[in-house]
Amino acid sequence: MISTIENYQTKTALASLRVVLIEDLRDVREGLIALINGTADFRCVANYGMMETALAGIERDKPDVILTDLGLPGMSGIEGIEKLRAMFADVPIIALTIYDNDTEIFDALCNGANGYLLKNTPPARLLEALKEAVDGGSPMSPQIAARVVKLFRQFRPPEYSDYRLTPQETELLKLLIEGHHKKTAAKEMGISFHTVSFHLKNIYEKLQVHSKTEAVAKALREKLV
Fold first, then answer.
1. For the chain, which residues make up each domain, given as ranges?
2. How many other CB atoms are there within 10 angstroms of residue 10's CB atom?
3. Do residues 36 and 19 touch, judged by C-beta distance below 8 A?
């Protein structure tokens, strides 16, 4: 009988949505852990107070979804999101933060976040957003969604821009906009990591930018893809 109960519990745990939480404020972290573990079909498999420790151990956690603060001590959540995206091409990453300004929103999404929620999000909506992200959605707080729409309306192309991007450079730029990093872009394009680096260097030179975020921003603003 005990064995049967243990087997049931094991199967239930395996079927649960595996959430990894990155949050430096202890009270907030413990509250979120209690919410996640206290809800059927959810399990917080690991929690971290710093991005550096999360990056060191998260591959062992095998997350289905990652929930991270942005205002972390040490490495910021925005920088961490880019590193997490490089580690997990397909695992959804949701920013959970107090920041609702355009810079944080834009940078988090450009670095690979699938969703962006404010910390005043109701518990039921937070859990719904985790499922939504795993199902391929991009959950956002209503205020954030409104800001994103406003941001994209501001991206108006000039009358004519010809940066002479090659077809492969254009394809790579499109993949970067979609949230890919060099490794996953190489796989999508069927070329080597080094070839992607070569194309990326040319893109930076042609667009006169110095980072992936700047390249993506310019491509969106001028509708280059």
1. 2-152, 167-221
2. 10
3. yes
- Is it true that 2-152 and 167-221 share their CATH fold? no
Residue 212 has a CB neighbour count (10 Å cut-off) of: 20
pTM (whole model) above 0.70: no
Give residue 179's pLDDT: 86
Cα–Cα distance measured from residue 51 to residue 83, given in angstroms and rounded to the nearest whole number: 10
Which residues are CB-neighbours of 129 under 8 A, at least 6 positions away? 94, 115, 117, 121, 139
Strand intervals (E) in the chain: 17-22, 42-48, 65-68, 93-97, 115-118
Of 79, 69, 74, the C-alpha closest to 28 is 69
What does the alpha-carbon distance between residue 138 and residue 93 come to, in Å, rounded to a whole number? 10
Residues 153, 158, 161, 163, CA torsion sign: negative
Q: What is the arithmetic mean of pLDDT over 148-158?
A: 67
Q: Which CATH superfamily is domain 2-152 in?
A: Response regulator (3.40.50.2300)
**φ, ψ at 186 (rounded to 5°):** -60, -40
What is the token pair recorded at 104? 């944080």
| Per-residue pLDDT at 4 exceeds 60 | no
Looking at every residue in the chain, the average pLDDT score rounds to 87
Q: 């944080």: which residue's tokens?
A: 104
Q: What architecture does CATH give domain 167-221? A: Orthogonal Bundle (1.10)
